[in-house]
Amino acid sequence: MRIEFDKQIERLKNSYGANAYSSNRIELFWEWLNLLAAKDFESAVSKLIASERQPPMLNQFVELVLPKLQVSKKLQEEASAIGRKECAVCDSKGFVFKTMMSKKLQRNYEYIFRCECEWGKKYTAWPLLSDVTAYQGKDSL
Length: 141
Ligand SMILES: [Zn+2]
What we know:
Elements: H1 2-16, H2 23-33, H3 38-51, H4 58-65, H5 73-81, E1 95-102, E2 107-114, H6 132-135
Antiparallel strand pairs: 1-2
């Protein structure tokens, strides 16, 4: 629920400063994390606040909560109603992780890309899987 979500965003802002989370960024988080139960998001936020010196970004949340992220029954029903086919590339999740070298972090890091299939259309905030090579080696990563 949005109220619960905003409460957690407040906790993050209190720990990392309001400037770390622009309203644009928060909306992108919401697009992704609204699939989560409030308590799962809360526990992810607690873990990250306890362990991260820098403001945690979406990839870090998703790494923590991925096992809990499920395509809801409603979404699945909608999908079969419009004849979406199962996708072997993304396992019908709509997104895939790619490990790439992060220049900022100086280590390999899992980045999220949306799949080219019908399932991926929900995640417009993510770069397309076909753009992976364009992202590799970017200084901003
Ligand atoms: Zn796919």
